[in-house]
Automatic annotation (TrEMBL):
Gene3D superfamilies: HORMA domain (3.30.900.10). It comes from the Eukaryota. The keyword Signal does not apply. One of its GO terms (cellular component) is nucleoplasm. Keywords: Cell cycle, Cell division, Mitosis, Nucleus. Residues 1-22, 127-152 are annotated as: Disordered. This is Mitotic spindle checkpoint component mad2. It is found in: Nucleus. InterPro entries: HORMA_dom (IPR003511), HORMA_dom_sf (IPR036570), Mad2-like (IPR045091). One of its GO terms (biological process) is mitotic spindle assembly checkpoint signaling.
Amino acid sequence: MSQPPKTSSKSKSKSSSKDSSKVHKLALKGSSKVVNEFFEYSINTILFQRGVYPAEDFTAVKKYGLTMMVTADDQVKAYIKKIMSQLKDWMYGGKISKLVIVITSKETGEHVERWQFDVQIFGKSSKSKSSKKSTDKENASPDQDTPEEKTEAEIQAEIQSIFRQITASVTFLPMLDGNCTFNVLVYADADSEVPLEWGDSDAKEIKNGEKVQLRSFSTSNHRVDTLVSYRLAD
């Protein structure tokens, strides 16, 4: 397992004279917290369901109206905590487009399973790598990037469905042989402030793998799509 990343402290708050801007920032922060929590429980659930660590290293907690398993191993717990702390900074700053959990065989070094969570932020224009001129403007269609308002119960029900799918995925995913480890990859905007402990990485794709699209969930500010890739058993 790679060294856990360290948190970086930086202030992102900007004073705004517009109340609507403040309301939007509060909504975005609340939505980011929901997504962040979802990621934390996703990492724990995948590690438990896929047997990356022994079942006795996990403890049961109630979340989303479900019994969720979270690691009780101090080292793994500290590693996830540091990942989540940095992730929170990037999420609040609207910098993340993708989070990936890769399971790798310790014996062969081969990536055997890859869980990808694509993050879409409503209202955030897709940035081109080359900076656009101020004259390049386009009118968005009325229904483009328009989030629907949802209650907390509706959001929780969608998240619940995803975790039920992750749990059920053991029925079609090949059994993981031998000892495995995991890495977390984050796709952040190019202008993100990155701590030194976070190194560049390749995509860690699964060679000749199968892909299964799972459910998605959305808040008033974010949409998260889930995809699992896995290597077919030889």
